[in-house]
Amino acid sequence: MGRDRAAATGTECGLKGSRTRSLCAVPLMFRAGDRGTVMSRGPTTLKHMSDLLWTVSDLHLGHQRVAETRGFSDTGDHDRVVLDGLRAVPDGSVLLCLGDISVRKDAYALGRLAELKAEKNLTMWLIPGNHDRIHPMFGPESVAEWTPLYREIFDVIALDLQVRIGRWQVLMTHLPRASGKDAVPDPHQTPQPARWAGREGFDCTVHGHSHSPVPVRRKHVNLSLEATGMAPVSPERLEELVTQAVRFRG
């Protein structure tokens, strides 16, 4: 990252094909096509939810163990199903991934996503997960090594997004909320990634990471592929899930 590092506190990120604009001011954020790495501090805010924004989490392309837990004998069949689900996204849409494109096979996963992006004319956004080697938890050397490759595919990379979905203020992140009275117990949490997950002041947290088949809990929406029928979620469906989570009384 070195001398090309630049500070930004109010970068506007336009969604292709939409009038929606976003105000980005993030702990760590990269924009494809920028000169160097754009970094700043503060939250990431989308002023409005675009009707072109589809959301998915936990692709785990090329990951044998997750393929088996999802009922596939090998990663080839698993990856075909995952990518076919992504192909159902309308051409020209924005596809937001809430992390974990793979596990130790980042280059392979990025290659498959590059093909999909070109085929569907997509804009791709990423909130890095704990298995994505661009995440700060891997350390500065890993981030510096993988940033150029990730930026070839993802137009925006941010640690979280704050959005308004319908009437609700929503945090979109990889990890479930790790603190507060509505925290979701997560056996996968460790103190290090938990530091990135603690946020307060939202009606709902939309996340992945858990691989639970349950999509809705109190103030939480889980978009791991296990909870979404192995397919991305449309903006209309996401609003329905968020409303259910906010009103959840179980």
UniProtKB/TrEMBL annotation:
Record protein name field: Calcineurin-like phosphoesterase domain-containing protein
GO molecular function terms noted in the UniProt entry: hydrolase activity
Pfam families listed in its UniProt record: Metallophos
Coiled-coil segments on the chain, per record: none
Source organism of the structure: Corynebacterium variabile (strain DSM 44702 / CIP 107183 / JCM 12073 / NCIMB 30131)
Residues in Calcineurin-like phosphoesterase domain copies: 55-213
Matching InterPro entries: Calcineurin-like_PHP, Metallo-depent_PP-like
Highest taxon listed in the record's lineage: Bacteria
